[in-house]
Design a protein that fits this description.
heterodimer; A: 396 residues; alpha+beta; seven-stranded mixed beta sheet; 12 helices; B: 179 residues; mainly alpha; Rna Polymerase Sigma Factor, Chain: A; Arc Repressor Mutant, subunit A; 2 domains; 9 helices; globular
């Protein structure tokens, strides 16, 4: 129960302000206040000297540098990580592309052998290892053989259906996203199979919503028009180029020569069968027959090879998403550098977001811990202050 | 008194109006020691804590902004933290040595020079929190606002604590006088 003479807080404040006491209790309080105010406890010389020794200024500059250096180190580390990720990412991408473009065994209908599809070796190799050098490689190849087998012509139009031609088609299509790209790649494979063609090589590279796919297809030339129509329907055409090499002349020449050889062989066989030849003539005819038959076999093989080349068109189908279009069509130059920079910034942003996601829970946990520690410290302070002798252990 | 000024540090917070630390130390050393003396009731301990207070203040002197208040409450805040840290550490130490402490007779604490025995006994009967508010409001004559901010409590709570402390002092002194 509170004492009736309990000092009110307002009254205590007034007594401190010098208001005269009105009760005996207030008089005691006033006396205690006066005595306490008169308390003189000068610091001993030893303490004064000890405090006075605190003369050397601290090193404020170094202290200020610490947060600056820490911030700079964090920024540098983030940028370095972004650059590293961007570099590794681009390296991985090219490696993935190379690894993903793998030859596919050709079918029996390509000439009765289990070897890769015809012409796949010359077209797929360079196309897979050197992006978009397909046409320059093709031109070199054509120039090397142009003297013997016709002239290479490039156009955006369809080949001449009346003549035997070696046809190379580049078709680039843009898709909306990586999912659509995968579907289109599968559709292209299905179209190729439907038309009696084969897939010589394929490679699909997707990252998030972006990606590219490269398919090297061998499609029957007679169905090339249909193939172009059906493949073009898979996406938006961003590039279409057709290179043709006329094989008809070579086939015709070989055909005529084969006919001549067959006639000559038939004539020589009749001469041998007539029995009118002396041994020397007979030997001479037999040797000529051997040469003619060998030449006939060789010409027949060459003609068959040319016919096979003419029978199948090489189709390089490039599928790409909107963002990957630049990379699929062209690398290098200012545009390429700008794209690399944007990519690097994007990756830096991704890292920042990732770091934020990673750090945010840690920050929250640290904040909660800090608040808890502060609350506990405050509570223990209150406990200490509730005792006359704070240093003494609490009594049970 | 002249020792501190002789060892004064030359650096001054020119832009913030912060005085040299040595000047502030000389001006406030006695006040801080008196606060700690009333708070702890122990001369030697008050000296040790005062020294540690000024060492800590010296390291933090660049953080002191005169525009936010006088030096004394800022120094008393540090002294309070130093004293509480000491009490906490000492309490843990003594708890570990509780058995030994029970067997040891407590030493007679030295008297607070300048105070009457009645008032000194009455002071010792107060809790540390009450002694603290007496030291700040009466001995150092800090105003209620600064004291409340330093203690981390409201102004009315501070006044109430002070009134309770004074009431207990008067009651104890009266009882001693009657006895």
């Amino acid at each position: 129960m509170p004492s009736p003479e309990l000092l009110a807080p307002e009254r205590a404040e007034r007594l401190l302000a010098g208001v005269p006491p009105e009760t005996a209790r207030e008089a005691d309080v006033e006396r205690a206040v006066r005595e306490l105010r008169a308390l003189s406890a000068p610091a001993p010389a030893e303490l004064r000297e000890r405090v006075g020794r605190l003369s050397a200024p601290p090193t404020p500059r170094r202290r200020r540098l610490v947060p600056v250096l820490a911030t700079a180190a964090i920024v540098a580390a983030a940028l370095g990580a972004a650059a590293l990720v961007a570099h590794v990412g681009s390296g991985d991408r090219s490696v993935r592309e190379r690894a993903a473009v793998t030859p596919v065994a050709g079918g029996e209908d390509m000439g009765g052998s289990a070897e890769p599809a015809p012409k796949a070796g010359s077209a797929v190799g360079p196309a897979s290892e050197e992006k978009h050098d397909f046409w320059s490689a093709l031109s070199k190849d054509r120039r090397a053989t142009a003297s013997g087998e016709g002239v290479v012509t490039e156009s955006a139009g369809p080949p001449d259906a009346e003549r035997a031609q070696d046809v190379d088609l580049l078709l680039a299509l843009r898709l909306d996203n990586a999912d659509r790209l995968s579907e289109a790649a599968n559709d292209a494979l299905q179209i190729t199979t439907d038309l009696g063609g084969v897939v010589a090589a394929s490679g699909v590279d997707t990252a998030g919503r972006e990606g590219t796919a490269r398919l090297e297809l061998s499609i029957p030339t007679r169905k090339l028009d249909e193939a172009i129509v059906r493949l073009s329907a898979l996406g938006t055409i961003t590039e279409q180029r057709i290179a043709t090499r006329d094989l008809q002349g070579g086939i015709d020449r070989r055909g005529r020569r084969i006919e001549q050889l067959r006639t000559a062989i038939r004539a020589d066989e009749l001469r041998l069968a007539s029995g009118t030849l002396d041994p020397g003539e007979k030997l001479e005819v037999e040797l000529r027959l051997l040469r003619e038959r060998g030449l006939l076999r060789e010409l027949t093989r060459e003609r068959a090879r040319l016919l096979r080349e003419a029978a199948y068109a090489e189709v390089s189908l490039v599928l790409h998403t909107r963002e990957a279009a630049g990379a699929a069509v062209e690398d290098g130059g200012i545009g390429g550098a700008a794209r690399d920079a944007v990519d690097a910034l994007g990756r830096a942003g991704e890292i920042a977001v990732f770091a934020g996601i990673l750090v945010a829970p840690l920050f929250l946990v640290s904040l909660v811990l800090w608040i808890a520690v502060r609350a506990r410290r405050r509570w223990t302070d209150e406990q200490l202050l509730e005792r006359p002798s704070p240093a003494a252990p609490p009594q049970p | 008194m002249g020792d501190v000024s002789a060892l004064a540090t030359p650096w001054v917070g020119a832009r913030t109006g912060r005085p040299p630390f040595a000047e502030a130390a000389e001006r406030n050393l006695d006040h801080v020691r008196r606060y700690l003396l009333v708070f702890t009731g122990d001369h030697a301990l008050a000296d040790d804590l005062a020294a540690e207070t000024f060492e800590r203040a010296f390291r933090r002197w660049r953080r002191y902004d005169p525009r936010r208040g006088p030096e004394l409450p800022w120094l008393c805040g540090i002294a309070r933290r130093v004293a509480l840290d000491h009490f906490r550490a000492e309490s843990r130490r003594r708890r570990r040595e509780e058995r030994f402490a029970r067997e040891t007779r407590p030493e007679r604490e030295p008297s607070l020079a300048g105070l009457s025995p009645e008032l000194e006994d009455a002071l010792r009967a107060l809790t540390a929190g009450e002694r603290e508010v007496v030291a700040l409001r009466i001995v150092l004559d800090l105003d209620a606002e600064a004291t409340a901010r330093l203690l981390g409590i409201g102004r009315s709570a501070c006044s109430m604590r002070l009134a309770r402390a004074l009431d207990k002092l008067a009651e104890r002194m009266t009882a001693d006088a009657v006895a």
